Amino acid sequence: MVEKYDFLIIGAGVVGSAIARELSKYEAKVLVLEKECDVCFGTSGRNSGVSHAGFYMPPGSLKAKLNVLGNKLMPGLCKELDVPFKEIGKLVVAKNEDEISYLEKLKSQGEKNGVKGLKLIDSREIKKLEPEVNGVAALYSRHSGILDPFELTIALAENALENGVEIKLKHEVTDIAVRENFFEVKTTKGSFRAEWLINSAGLFADEIAKLVGIHSYRIYPCRGEYHVLDKNHSNLVSMLIYPVPPLESGGLGVHLTPTVHGNLMLGPSAEYISDKEDFSTSRDVMEELIREAKEMVPKIEKASVIRSFAGIRPKLVPKGKAFADFVIKEEEKVEKFINLVGIESPGLTAAPAIAKMVVELIKEKQELKRKKVFKARRKRPRRFYELNDAERKKLVKKDKRYAEIICRCELVTRKEIIDAWKNPLGARSLNSIKLRTRAGMGRCQGSFCLPRILEVLEEEFGFEALNLTLSCDDSRLFSDYSRKSLGKDES
Amino acid sequence: MKVDLAIIGAGPAGLAAAIQANKSGIKAENILLIERNNSLGGILQQCIHDGFGVILFKKALTGPEYAQIFIDELEQRKIRYMLNSTVISVEKVGEGFILKVCSKENGFLEILARAIIFATGCRERTRSQIFTPGSRPAGIYTAGCVQNLMNLKGLLPGRSAVILGSGDVGLIMARRLTLEGIKVKAVVEIMPYCSGLPRNLVQCLQDYGIPLYLRHTVIDIRGKKRVKEVVIAKVDDKFNPVEGSEKIIPCDTLILSVGLIPENEIARNLGVAIDQKTQGPVVDENLQTSIKGVFACGNSLHVHDLVDYVTLEGKKAGKAAAEYLLFDRLGKCNIKIIAGKGIRYVLPHFISGKKDVSLFLRVTKPGRNKRLIARFQNRIIKEELKRKVNPAEMIKFELDKELLHDVREIEISLLD
């Protein structure tokens, strides 16, 4: 018996999760299928974590509209979902006189888009705001903010789940049959039927579209590499620091992004590649990021890098080609198939607005009835390192498991590891713990806490350490036991 | 809780410091040893190979055996310790310090101490810190992490491995992996010489026929879910890869042994001055840091080659802390010690000139028949011939107080 849903969403990135949550406000049976073993493992978890104000996008475009709206919705959404969000502001810095005209263009473009809080400032004012930043002039944007994209996606998905949405991880869509009144979606783990199909498959949205017979889209993967700096070296700037975007690069230029957790990130580069899953970093780019960041903030040091990673933008146009807008529409050719293609930057910012737009598209065709009870608020597990000492003392008094530090670099406690492993989505990998707690994200990069995390999983859940994976199925961390009795028998 | 002396870290340095402080007159109940792990002994507990104690005990003990000697003495002296307890910050208040501690058994504690010894050990440099490009799949570990997983948890990291870096932990793990049936395909070292101790090179690589690639590095890691292969290449004098010298090595594990960094985050936040070279505190001949009443020893001060030297340094810190607490008679240290030509670093940073001192130093590169020279301005204070020097080996250089009259500054250098 194949289960039937009203709405089936393909892809549990930030957009898919936001749509799922938005739909969970209505009387409907909603299913999300995700090929990875956790949400947020694709583009959504590999970006700058910025809520853009909305001055980069050409007026009148969907990108501009959804960006500005998403930016307005973001603080409230983050508050509802208990996701840290900080409106720290941003400087787009001109390195020389020639670039100033571009700042003016950005400002007027932003104002046309309805962005508030934009101001051109001179080098003196730059120094006042950001003493370490070099530049002749800058565009200051008050409403640019930062958030943790992992936490936002997890929160959206968890809240959707709590409101009745089903989320199936490790279900990769392999085929879709368009029937008279429904879609039949085949996955690696069984088939599902749905009346509406929503394609938010990110980098793979073109391939999903092909499965329903739409061949007009092609995603061009454009990789961006980043460095994460040690917290000790992260107080160089307090705002987002961006350059004037290099022409035709495919990105916004290498920028400095403070994170809500107190690190500084550098990046991203922009490089068109052929493999949608090649998240490798490369030697030349790694060096280049440092060089470019140093142009704006000379005090940046290579030695302060604790992690390098890469994300991939799902672009709708190849290198050097003009701007391409988001595609968000019900396809004429296939009724009740909503396509979301080319959702790159500012996709994270726009996600809440995209979700609302998708629901509006559905409402044009079909009446949606609000649920009587929708639980809008979600409480995230406590984070020890975010608390002050008085709060810590109180928390530890209530539950001693908060007094045992497992990850020394990021001050993650036993209780937090337990909470992460028990996550409602059922994601069970080392990276799933990492994204939810920050264990392993510090300067030792998990060398010290990996054995400790194993101990917690063994002691608390009877989990067999040998079976732990880094991320999904084929990423087992260990090959075997050396001595069967070792590590099992403590006596 | 109030104590005279809080010692952070119960590895060899902390254990020796605690015992010596007690021997030097601090009552056992006024000492508190704080350890974040669930046992005393620190990293020694995962070092199941032998070779520890050749200087102090004239024996080649295993790590746990070595640690047990000190643990037994600590217990016998009834010195207090706290396990599963992490110091998260230290602040100065009046003449003393407040330590905030998260303790599994005791909850969130504030401990008042009149003096502190940092014996917090070191951490391993990671792949990102040396800018190794490539993918980030399962199967990339630091050597110490693998040592813990294999020796304490009985978990094997993979079936075939490449080790990047020829530090001692990496060499020891090459042998350990081989003994467990894991094929170690190569040890890759960017420098023109092995960075571990000569005895480890012989006993861990050469005895097992494991190839060591000098002047090579890993330039790519491949594999999406699990490591599939690594690419190594020769490097030129500026450490840039030489085109055309690439070699692909299929393996499922990459282990890094690319250096150790003293752990001093808490000391740094307290305001202790840190030497950029050693990444450890700036200390005087009493191992007192830039803050009065705060001492440092062991691998958190500088990375040692032999545990016996860690123990001796711990003892010295324990004795100095006791003298500080009991008599407040640690003399002024105004003579600056400077690392000159051929010297990577030298400790301590300041001496009094009123005591005989042992300087500990490391050279920048291997050499033969060198002259180790201590000089004040144009005057050579002391000169020693060194038949063989190696950055992997710490050199002890003793200066008698008689040599130090009217000396205001000493430069140590290594000349031909």
Give the low-confidence spans of chain A: none
How would a crystallographer describe the biggest sheet of chain B?
Answer: 7 strands, mixed
Please identify the top-level CATH class of the largest domain in chain B: Alpha Beta
Label the overall shape of chain B. globular
Which percent range fits the helix content of chain A?
Answer: 25-40%
Number of DSSP strand runs of chain B: 28
Question: What does this protein structure show overall?
Answer:
The complex is a heterodimer of chains A (491) and B (416). Chain A has helices at 14-23, 62-81, 100-113, 123-129, 149-162, 205-211, 283-296, 347-365, 389-398, 414-421, 430-437, 449-461, and strands at 3-10, 30-33, 50-51, 85-86, 90-94, 118-122, 137-141, 145-147, 166-168, 173-178, 183-187, 190-199, 220-229, 240-243, 255-258, 264-267, 271-272, 305-315, 327-330, 337-341, 405-407, 412-413, 480-481. By secondary structure, chain A is α+β, with helices and mostly antiparallel strands. In chain A, helix 1 (14-23) runs parallel beside helix 8 and helix 2 packs across helix 8 (347-365). Chain B folds into three domains: 2-123 and 261-330, FAD/NAD(P)-binding domain, CATH 3.50.50; 126-258, FAD/NAD(P)-binding domain, CATH 3.50.50; 337-415, Immunoglobulin-like (Sandwich), CATH 2.60.40. In chain B, the strands form seven sheets. In chain B, strands 1, 2, 5, 6, 7, 8 and 20 form a seven-stranded mixed beta sheet that branches. In chain B, strands 10-18-12-13-14 form a five-stranded parallel beta sheet. A five-stranded mixed beta sheet of chain B has the order 23-21-28-25-26, with no helix packed on it. In chain B, helix 1 (12-23) runs parallel beside helix 2, helix 3 (143-153) packs across helix 4 and helix 4 (168-179) runs parallel beside helix 5 (198-205). Classes of the chains: A alpha+beta (491), B alpha/beta (416). Chains A and B meet through helix 7, strand 18, helix 9, helix 12 and strand 23 of A and strand 7, helix 3, strand 11 and strand 15 of B. Strand 23 of chain A pairs antiparallel with strand 11 (155-156) of chain B, so a sheet runs across the interface.
